[in-house]
Automatic annotation (TrEMBL):
Keyword Transferase among UniProt keywords: no
Stated family: Belongs to the RRP40 family.
Record-level GO cellular component terms: cytoplasmic exosome (RNase complex); nuclear exosome (RNase complex); nucleolus
Predominant place of localization: cytoplasm
Keyword tags: Cytoplasm, Exonuclease, Exosome, Hydrolase, Nuclease, Nucleus, RNA-binding, rRNA processing
Annotated K Homology domain residues: 151-198
Domain Exosome complex exonuclease Rrp40 N-terminal residue range list: 19-62
InterPro entries according to UniProt: Exosome_RNA_bind1/RRP40/RRP4, KH_dom_type_1, KH_dom_type_1_sf, NA-bd_OB-fold, RRP40_KH-I, Rrp40_N_euk, Rrp40_S1
Pfam families reported in the protein's UniProt record: KH_6 (PF15985), Rrp40_N (PF18311), RRP40_S1 (PF21262)
Protein name: Ribosomal RNA-processing protein 40
Residue ranges of coiled coil: none
């Protein structure tokens, strides 16, 4: 991925047949009906290797929903045929009861207030509340999305979440080589963790907090040293 610093209002050369814009970017049409992309906040401009995904990382503490991003949410209330879900944004998101693999009007999940969810943002607009879905948009299969049972919720910076989702980051592969664990990482500053032993769950939570750039910023050698104390 490539990155550069950008200011609000600057033009971004984001062009791709399957263009996906993340936080901090806005697509608009000029008077000549040409499609352009501009930044809405200051920060580091990032894009994927094939230039299909673009986003800006800044110092924002509040999550700004963007379409197709994965999030970890908490059900806060029942709402009609669906639920209100806290995803850490300015407004709660709406999850329809049919937005699950194989769901029908007679066969829907029975979520309760306080339930944790791993979901995908299906709609994000500044003038509308975000909407979620718990299946892959292309296959309509769960693909890991849905209710998260048990486990522990870790809160970290938005930047740390993006680092954890990078295949080149050391932390999760390192932890996975030491013990069995399951992780659901949302781009909204929340990570759900479960493991066979409680001490391993605690270790993962502490490592995420320690490696977080907004926290200790611990490197790989520091994590290895900490994990070594678990074996004593």
């Amino acid at each position: 991925m490539s990155e550069t610093f950008i200011l609000p209002g600057e033009s971004v050369p984001a062009q791709h047949v399957n263009l996906k814009l993340g936080p901090g970017l806005l697509q608009y049409a000029t008077v000549d009906q040409e499609s352009r992309v501009a930044s809405t906040k200051a920060g580091e401009l990032h894009h994927s290797a094939n230039n299909s995904r673009w986003w800006i990382e800044g110092n924002s503490k509040r999550y700004i929903p963007a379409p197709q991003e994965s999030v970890v949410g908490v059900v806060t209330a029942r709402s009609g045929e669906g639920w209100r879900v806290d995803i850490g944004s300015a407004h709660p998101a709406y999850l329809d009861g049919l937005a699950f693999e194989g769901a029908t009007k007679r066969n829907k999940p029975n979520l309760k207030v306080g339930s944790l969810l791993y979901a995908r943002v299906s709609l994000a607009h500044k003038d509308m509340e975000p909407e979620l879905e718990c299946f892959d948009a292309q296959t309509h299969k769960a693909e890991g999305f849905g209710e998260l049972k048990g486990g522990f919720l870790v809160r970290c910076s938005l930047k740390m979440c993006r680092l954890l989702l990078s295949p080149n980051h050391f932390l999760l592969p390192l932890l996975g080589s030491r013990f069995t664990l399951e992780v659901a990482t949302g781009l909204n500053g929340r990570v759900w963790v479960t493991a066979k032993e409680a001490k391993h769950v605690i270790a993962v939570a502490r490592c995420i907090e320690a490696v977080d750039p907004d926290g200790g910023g611990m490197d790989e050698s520091g994590v290895k040293q900490f994990l070594g104390t678990l074996d004593r």
